[in-house]
Amino acid sequence: MAFMMALLALGPAQASLSNVVRIVLQKGRHYDPTDLFLRRGDTITLVNGDDSAVHHAFIEADRFAFDAGDQEPGKQATLTLKEPGDFIIQCGIHPKMRLTIHVQ
């Protein structure tokens, strides 16, 4: 109860949760994890964890597009989610690689 009272005393802007950064590993022609549940404003960092494979993450959606370009081993790309909905991140080099993101 005291915790709730303290949050109420802070006001709505200060009591809100901060945005989350989630790391997604691209390795062995898979995304890890394969499903993410996020909120608008959260960020995904895609990390190529393979030793020699290049990946190319992208989203084609009605409301926005994302294209990380070719990611050499060890490189990373960042996407901040601003639109609600369900989206699929695919790899342009490995078509079976799929990551489903659900954004509230």
Unreliable spans are 1-16
Number of strands: 9
Instruction: Report the CATH C-level class.
Output: Mainly Beta
Rough outline: globular
Strand order of the largest sheet: 3-9-8-5-6
Counted up, domains total 1
> What is the oligomeric state here?
single chain
In CATH terms, the superfamily is Cupredoxins -  blue copper proteins
Q: In percent, how helical is the residue content? A: 10-25%
Proper CATH architecture: Sandwich
> Beta-strand level of the residues, as a percent range?
35-45%
Mean pLDDT: 86
Note the main sheet: 5 strands, mixed
The radius of gyration is: 17 Å
Distance N terminus to C terminus?
A: 28 Å
SS-based structural class? mainly beta
Give the helix tally: 2
Q: What is the CATH topology classification name?
A: Immunoglobulin-like
Sum up the structure in keywords.
single chain, 104 residues, mainly beta, Immunoglobulin-like, five-stranded mixed β-sheet
Question: Any chance you could write out the topology, listing elements then pairs?
Answer:
Blueprint: H1 2-10, H2 12-15, E1 21-27, E2 30-32, E3 35-38, E4 43-48, E5 57-60, E6 65-67, E7 76-80, E8 85-91, E9 98-103
Parallel strand pairs: 1-4, 3-9
Antiparallel strand pairs: 1-2, 4-7, 5-6, 5-8, 8-9
Folded structure, characterized:
This protein has 104 residues and is mainly beta. It has helices at residues 2-10, 12-15, and strands at 21-27, 30-32, 35-38, 43-48, 57-60, 65-67, 76-80, 85-91, 98-103. The strands form two sheets. It has a five-stranded mixed beta sheet, with no helix packed on it. The radius of gyration is 17 Å and the shape is globular.
